Amino acid sequence: MPISILKADPAKPEGYSHLLKKAKSDLSVATEKVIPILRSVEKEGDKALFEFTKKFDSIELSSLTIDPRSVRTNVPKDIQEAFLTAKKNIETFHKAQLRDSWSVNVDGNKLGVKYTPIPSLAVYAPGGTALYPSSVLMGIIPAKIAGVKEIQLVTPPQKGGLPDILVWLAQILEIDRIVTVGGAQGIAAVAYGTESVPKSEFVVGPGNSYVAAAKSYLAGVGLIGIDSPAGPSEVGILADETANPMWIACDMLSQAEHGEDSSAILMTTSQSLADAVSVELEKAFVERPKRLKMKQHAIYENSCILVFPKMDDCIHFSNLLAPEHLEIQTADPYKVFEGIEHAGSVFLGPYSPVAMGDYISGTNHILPTAGGSRIYSSLGVDTFLKRVTYQEVTKESLNRLYPHVKLMSELEGLDEEHGTSVKVRYEEKKH
């Protein structure tokens, strides 16, 4: 059962427009299930967290938080070196994103923007087989650079104790505490705050559909800020006849191994490349059978190869798809990149697989999914900074502009107080 290859006719987009709908993630069922959990945590605090942990994780906790500085870890030196290298690269890239406050003179008045960090952050780290310690770096480092003061790591408890790598990362990143509560109840704990768990203003990090539903629901009612609504992992690849079909197949499969709901869509102008990639995918299933059913489901059910007449057609569809990850493997990737408007993170050239950004290059891998990059950006220092605008109006400017304020406030029916607050200052010049 090879991957689906479609001749994409831009005059008949209905033949492949279903791929845009497939990218969406419906959290309605998960939301219905998590709302009672959220309400229980809101009302009962720690008591609910202990009960849900016993119910869902089969673990009876004696405490809900851990001071990472109090735990001894044993992380191999080569693993430490890998993560320290990633830490350095991520810090270098994100420090370049820092913004300076600024001011400008407008009509005789000083107006400006002062950037201030959000007060507190919780970073969610999944447990079990979905352990992503790299996401801890991605969530915490830009927040630290932005100046966030209070940071806690939220992760499910493990019967054998927390993984050493998570605790070690918490230590080197100097976070305040680890909250050993997972799932929707862990998100609720930091959104509402409990007797043991301080409230956080913002939460980021990957998780299952229940974690995603809890984040989206709590953000929707204004209890917590989130990076962007999360869905299944995805990659779009723009390629021409110069691309290496085996490398493209590997890159598609690297997304497929995230889960059976992941997707990989190749957009190309070359039928021969499309056929060769299909062959390479089948060879890979034989040669690398780990997580075989998961990868096959993602490739056969959620993925596709589209053969367009022109690269401009590929670019147009890619902007509609707005993929979480976008690889450009063409003879002139920067020329193609000029036409890209919507993507979470872009990987240019043959030596830039998504996995480099996932781990080590320095960009952030917490990205908008399901077409979210049309309105959201990748996680970065900006995510944790607020703009505080300010102004200093001069007496001369107020006197000059008051007649306009008078007319505008009268038009809106707010002249009695809005207009008067300016008028009393305007009249001062008469005394």
UniProtKB/TrEMBL annotation:
Coiled coil: none
Statement: the UniProt record of this protein carries the keyword Translocase: no
Pathway: Amino-acid biosynthesis; L-histidine biosynthesis; L-histidine from 5-phospho-alpha-D-ribose 1-diphosphate: step 9/9
Superkingdom assignment: Bacteria
UniProt-annotated binding residues for substrate: S233, Q255, H258, H325, D358, E412, H418
Enzyme active site: E324, H325
Enzyme class: oxidoreductase
PROSITE patterns for the chain: HISOL_DEHYDROGENASE (PS00611)
List of residues binding NAD(+): Y124, Q185, N208
UniProt key word Iron-sulfur: no
Record keywords: Amino-acid biosynthesis, Histidine biosynthesis, Metal-binding, NAD, Oxidoreductase, Zinc
Catalysed transformations (reactions): L-histidinol + 2 NAD(+) + H2O = L-histidine + 2 NADH + 3 H(+)
Annotated cofactor note: Binds 1 zinc ion per subunit.
PANTHER family: HISTIDINE BIOSYNTHESIS TRIFUNCTIONAL PROTEIN, HISTIDINOL DEHYDROGENASE HDH
Entry function: Catalyzes the sequential NAD-dependent oxidations of L-histidinol to L-histidinaldehyde and then to L-histidine.
NCBIfam families documented for this protein: hisD (TIGR00069)
Protein name per its UniProtKB record: Histidinol dehydrogenase
Gene symbol of the encoding locus: hisD
